[in-house]
Amino acid sequence: TVEGRESLQKLYHLLEAKGFQTRMEGVALLLDLCKSSPQLISSNIVQIFDHFVLRINDTHKKVKQQALEVLAEMLGLLEDALNPVMIRLVEGITKNLNSKDPGVHAAA
């Protein structure tokens, strides 16, 4: 639908933003979409994760921590829909297990 495409374009724009606060808004929007439109997310999972996996390894620790926390919630919401992106998720999470930041490490 047009509304779905517009939501995805907004999501991609926020996740790719220069400002860390805007990227955090994108992560929050992704969680909202997972709750309100799981079919939209499931049917576009690979494209969405092309953008989202970058936030799991974001240079800003607040964005990274929020992305990891949102990912934990998404696992319960999307379950099998995440299968096509599981390897990329595990790689992204694994990179954060060695983080010196306690919040990032705990979220990973």
Share of helical residues: over 70%
- Would you tell me the structural class of the helices and strands? mainly alpha
Beta strand count: 0
How many domains, as an integer? 1
Shape: globular
Indicate the proportion of strand residues.
Answer: under 5%
Helix-strand topology string: HHHHHHH
Low-confidence stretches: none
What does this structure look like?
It is a single chain. This protein has helices at residues 2-15, 20-36, 38-43, 45-56, 61-78, 86-96, 102-107. It has one domain. The mean pLDDT is 92. The protein is an all-alpha fold. It comes from Molothrus ater.
Can you tag this structure with a few keywords?
mainly alpha, 108 residues, single chain, 7 helices
Layout: helices, strands, pairs:
Blueprint: H1 2-15, H2 20-36, H3 38-43, H4 45-56, H5 61-78, H6 86-96, H7 102-107
Helix pairs in contact: 1-2, 1-4, 2-5
Quick summary:
It is built from 7 helices and no strands. With 108 residues, the chain is mostly helical. The longest helix has 18 residues, at 61-78.
